[in-house]
Write a structure and sequence with these properties.
binds magnesium ion; binds inosinic acid
Length: 181
């Protein structure tokens, strides 16, 4: 698997140090409150597990599953919610967790959907954000790292459902990415 990478961007220990900082900030910002984390599956699984254990607050966890990529490296723009019932967000402080902010379609759709269910507050936390012009305006309230517009895998992020188990994050070699044409 390592041979499929062009280069490693963030080692596990670098990610953990950043998570220590983000979790400290979240714990401070939500002091005295109960937080409801909504993790977007499957990409945020590893991130969520490492981050939530660092947050020192009473916390509820819910997960959401959406499809927008269909296993390719290009977004379709269409976001499909895979479960029938949405998590109960009414009057709660919601923190949406996702692996990466790319075109913005996924997070914008999730944020809008949860917003309409009456949360007390709603914020977004992503591990990675690509430096690019987004199709939908979404800003992360908490961000791990900004990266160039390249396709990355590992630490939960996949290409065609592979590489999620790599402990670090790296750039996938370009020639391994099938074009959508
Ligand atoms: P968006 O809707 O274009 O912002 O895409 C967000 C989703 O696309 C993420 O939750 C990821 O699942 C996937 N994605 C976008 N860029 C990458 C990448 O570089 N590597 C792996 N998955 C990605
Ligand atoms: Mg994915």
């Amino acid at each position: 698997m390592q041979g499929d990478l062009d280069r490693v961007l963030f080692h596990e220990t670098t990610i953990w140090s950043r998570l220590d900082q983000i979790a400290a900030q979240i714990s401070k910002d939500y002091a005295e409150k109960e937080l409801t984390v909504i993790a977007v599956l499957n990409g945020s699984l590893v991130f969520m597990a490492d981050l939530m254990r660092r947050i020192q607050l009473p916390l509820r966890l819910d997960c959401l599953s959406v499809a927008s990529y269909h296993g390719r490296a290009q977004t379709s723009g269409e976001v499909i919610f895979k479960q029938i019932a949405l998590p109960d967000v009414q009057d709660r402080h919601i923190l949406i967790l996702d692996d990466i902010l790319d075109s913005g379609h996924t997070l914008a759709a999730i944020r809008d959907k949860l917003q309409s269910a009456g949360p007390r507050s709603i914020k977004v936390c992503v591990l990675l954000s690509k430096k690019k012009k987004r199709d939908r305006a979404v800003d992360a309230d908490y961000l791990g790292f900004e990266i160039e517009d390249e396709f990355v895998v590992g630490y939960g992020l996949d290409y065609d459902e592979r590489y999620r188990n790599l402990p670090y994050i790296g750039v996938l070699r370009r020639e391994l990415i099938k074009s959508d044409e």
